Amino acid sequence: MTFRLGFLTHVQGRGPLGEAYRQAQELFVVADELGFDVGWVAQHHIPLHGGGLSSPWPFLAHAAARTKRIRLSTAITILPLENPVRVAEDVAVVNTLSGGRVEIGIGSGSGPIEYAALGTDYERRREITTSHFEILRRALRNQEVGTDGFTVQPPLTDDFTDRVWQAVFSGTGARYAAEAGANLLLNRATYGYTENTDVVQRAWADSFLESWNEPRTPRIGISRFVFPAADKRTALAQISDGVLRATRNFVDRGTFPAGQSLDEYLRRFHAFYGHPDEIVAAFQQERVLPVATDLITQFNPGIPDFDAAVRALELIATEVAPALGWKPSTVTAA
């Protein structure tokens, strides 16, 4: 099968926040050198353990200056909390600086605290997402927005029709994304379900494909928690602390049941970890991957140290993804 390979960072680390940001930039450089097709960042207004990125576009501008060929995208920009015209301006600037390497994923975010902090009604998030999305797409087409005669500067010379992604968390959302002509972004895991993530999300992906009515080929990106290492014990030594910390948060919020084993929580996080051969075998059973055009790997909720993260990226690019059919466009030594 053919797919683009991506790497998503939530910009987390084991040290000071400034160091987490620096190391996340270094991982973009490593991913670029290894041939990853797309580098993704997630926007979080509420701090995550070990970091979090509130403003993704300055980060991507810096990454653009340090990389040569990897495409740059958000998964996601929390669009209801942003001025969509300003987002389009940020996209236009970074796209110009990067030589046309930008894509954008949008979504509605995670919870009411960030909405309250930024003065937006959480109960209207879907309505606001829809209206902001329409403005953003007009702006990315260099159409007038806001007032007569106003268009985004610098003008976008690239066609963004196939570069806009929407994160969804239901079959209804998947149908809406298709009807809007947006590419589909699926989260690393579904929460609140007892079934495996890929079982739930395959139904959403099928709904998206059935509802697609654009002349171009539909695109589906799946984000997955992937951490290859020498073996499962080595992998767990790097990711278990982060997983258990995230698990406690999910239990406190009622999303995960209390008192389960680490293996069960890793299943609920839809985790692929251990020796590359084990990960490849697990992905060969993944139900959404056969219809995906983009595989987006991430280490979150694990927070490995920097050297282990670099080694995991190398194993993904040289052993895991090639065994699944991916071919890098360009590879140089990391």
TrEMBL record:
Keyword entries, A-Z: Monooxygenase, Oxidoreductase
Cleaved signal peptide residues: none
Gene Ontology cellular component list: cytosol
Gene Ontology MF annotations: monooxygenase activity; oxidoreductase activity, acting on paired donors, with incorporation or reduction of molecular oxygen
Domain Luciferase-like: 1-251
Pfam families reported for this sequence: Bac_luciferase
Residues passing through the membrane, by range: none
Protein name per UniProt: Luciferase
Organism encoding this protein: Actinoplanes lobatus
